Amino acid sequence: MSRIYLLSAVGTAVAFVAVAAWAQTSGGDTPAALAAPEAAASVATLAQGKDIYAANCAACHGANLEGQPDWRRRSENGRMPAPPHDETGHTWHHADSDLFTITKLGLSAVVPGYESDMPAFENILSDTEITAVLDYIKSTWPDRQRGFQAEVTANDE
Asked: Which of the residues 27, 38, 84, 114 has an alpha carbon 20 to 30 A from that of 52?
């Protein structure tokens, strides 16, 4: 299974690099969304991100990024279950800066006063490790979601 993932990740990385190179030479007619930020992520970074995700995120967000059951309904404790990070969730609706801040400092850093079961990873993961996890998550999305998220990120800057 890991060999299939590695081959898939290599193919994805090569495709992103090719699209980014084409976009730079095509006279600017390509939407900015196609120059996705994860294009720069190496295969090693994506593999590292996948491993870190498995060790730190999968217990709640799912081994396949599927989230917890009924993730749109509050749990008995009044908090929302962990959402999926695949294309069925809403992670791709958020800019890179928000995703990074939520992961590092917790959801309340973006939505003050919001209580969540998700811990802040500030004292657990380095900034580089958080970025690797986010690059891995984004690398799993279909083109439409990746493009939308890249546009949201570009508009956030």
From this structure: 114
